[in-house]
Amino acid sequence: MTLKPWALAGLALLQATPLYAAEEGGGPLAINTALIIWTFLIFGIVLVVLSRTAWPAILGAVEQRETHIRELLEGAERDRAAAAAAAEENRRLLEETRAKAHEAINEARLQGEAMRAEVLATSRREQQEMMERARRDIAAEREGALESVRREAVDLSIRAAEKLVRRTLDGEDNRRLVREYLAGVGARAEA
């Protein structure tokens, strides 16, 4: 297996650092220039390696997550707007339904009042017709009774006249006498 040149250089530097540190023998707080250089060099190598391998994947995942979160937020905003629109539509439908219910109740009340008035008018009209019919029947019965009384009076008058005259009147004489009598009775009834 062949090592890339930068990997080989990094490996050599890693092995050289402990040897170099052992030669100097500085204290723990002493500034070691070689160590600083190697640290920056290793940091740069790690930075280059990570920027070419891991960071694109990490940044892609972060961007994908940001996109997903943005889509979720936009979806939530759309859902909120849709819910608000649905709530407004429900409120409008409820108001429409209430208005229709009030209208139907008022219409039913008006129809009920109209039917009541019609029933009352019909019953009054029928009552008037019955009273008028009863008046006509009473008047007809009265006329019939008067006519019956008149005939009876005529018959009695004819019998009395026959007995007085002692003869029987013929049909023409009879009719003439009845007419005269009725005219006299009618004149007395009107006075």
Can you describe what's shown?
The mean pLDDT is 81. Helix 1 runs antiparallel to helix 2. This protein has four helices and no strands. It has 191 residues and is mainly α. The chain has a domain of 60 residues. It is rod-shaped, with a radius of gyration of 66 Å.
Helix-strand topology string: HHHH
* Unreliable sequence segments: none
* Mean of residue pLDDT values: 81
Please give the number of β-strands: 0
Structural Rg: 66 Å
Instruction: Report the β-strand fraction as a percent range.
Output: under 5%
Count of separate DSSP helical elements: 4
Secondary structure: helix percent: over 70%
Give the termini separation.
158 Å
Membrane topology: Single-pass membrane protein
Signal peptide: 1-21
Keywords: ATP synthesis, Cell membrane, CF(0), Coiled coil, Hydrogen ion transport, Ion transport, Membrane, Signal, Transmembrane, Transmembrane helix, Transport
Family: Belongs to the ATPase B chain family.
Concise summary:
One of its GO terms (cellular component) is endomembrane system. By secondary structure, the chain is mostly helical. The protein has helices at about 5-25, 35-50, 55-165, 170-190.
Write the layout of secondary structure elements.
Elements: H1 5-24, H2 33-52, H3 54-165, H4 171-190
Helix pairs in contact: 1-2
Features:
0% strand; 191 residues; rod-shaped; mainly alpha
